[in-house]
């Protein structure tokens, strides 16, 4: 499940670069939901 918006944050410093490389979805989705939730727009 996606983290609630109030507690949703990025755990990694390079989330913007990850999003720019289109790596928020597909095979990386589960990892990015945990590590780059805010930048990858997984907050609810």
Largest sheet: number of strands, sense, barrel closure: none
**What is the helical fraction, as a range of percent?**
25-40%
Low-confidence stretches: none
By DSSP, the count of extended strands is: 0
Q: Kindly estimate the percentage of residues that lie in beta strands according to DSSP.
A: under 5%
H/E series: HH
Helical stretch tally? 2
- N-end to C-end Cα span: 9 Å
The whole-angstrom Rg is 9 Å
What gross morphology would you assign? Answer: globular
Instruction: Write down the overall mean pLDDT.
Output: 90
How does the helix and strand content classify structurally?
A: mainly alpha
Overall number of structural domains: 1
Give a short summary of the structure:
The chain is built from 2 helices and no strands. By secondary structure, the protein is mainly α.
Question: What can you see in these coordinates?
Answer:
- This protein is 30% helix and 0% strand.
- The protein has one domain.
- The model has no long low-confidence stretch (mean pLDDT 90).
- By secondary structure, it is mostly helical.
- 16% of the residues are buried.
């Amino acid at each position: 499940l996606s983290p609630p918006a109030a507690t949703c944050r990025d755990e990694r410093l390079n989330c913007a670069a990850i999003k720019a490389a289109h790596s928020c979805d597909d095979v990386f989705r589960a990892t990015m939901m945990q590590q780059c939730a805010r930048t990858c727009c997984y907050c609810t």
